[in-house]
Amino acid sequence: MKPNSSILSGLLSTCPASGSVQVVHHVASFVEEQKLKLDVVLGTALVDVYAKCGFLDEAMDIFERMEDKDVKSWTAMISGLGVHGQPNNAIRLFNRMEKEGFKPNELTFLAILTACSHGGLVVEGMEVFKLMVQEYGFSPQVEHYGCLIDLLGRAGMLHEAHKLIDSLPIKGDATAWRTLLSACRIYGDVKLGKCV
Fold first, then answer.
1. What predicted TM-score, i.e. pTM, was given to this entire model?
2. DSSP letters along 41-89, please?
3. DSSP structural state of residue 102
4. Which phi and psi angles does 179 have, rounded to 5°?
5. pLDDT tens-place string over residues 46-76
6. How many Cβ atoms are within 10 Å of 114's Cβ, its own excluded?
7. To which H or E segment does residue 122 belong?
């Protein structure tokens, strides 16, 4: 029996956790040798695992070769770029996604907000958050707010982050408070740190 895209994507899903890059390369080689179609399931699995392992060129190559993409494909590539220090490329890909008619979901917004946070792109992050709420009508979850608080904290905008936490519809989020406390420590704001 020949393995199909579902079997291969299942195999690939175990690779980031186990750190087995050899398996990823073996599966990619197998796909090439067998001339298997990079359908949305197999293509997305390869993009995701390559991106998580830090092989962004390989991930982008697979992504561009995929005939069909879905929101998961775009999100996997955006996330990989953001996590590995390419926030501007993540934003460009997000914009391209919209131009090509794909509608981002909550996970896509989480990926792009994380990219903005890691890259210190405050203005861009705030614009993305506004787009998520006003244009797409998503209700932000605690993770989305957490990215915003992290973004503001990393930029030294501690009082803005504090105001945001106080205004959250979700009360008592320990992660948000820990994030702000960490930023207070980094920036030496003892007074706000004690309050937090």
1. 0.88
2. HHHHHHHHHHHHTT-HHHHHHHHHH-SS--HHHHHHHHHHHHHTT-HHH
3. P
4. -60, -45
5. 999 999 888 999 999 999 999 899 999 999 9
6. 23
7. helix 122-130
User: CB neighbours of 43 closer than 8 A, spacing ≥ 6?
Assistant: 62, 63, 65, 66, 68, 69, 73
Nearest-angstrom CA–CA distance, 40 and 61: 14
pLDDT tens-digit map of 110-142 = 999 999 999 999 999 999 999 999 999 999 988
Distance CA 85, CA 96 (A): 19
Distance CA 111, CA 143 (A): 10
Place of tokens 């069909």: 68
Q: Report which secondary-structure segment, H or E, holds 125.
A: helix 122-130
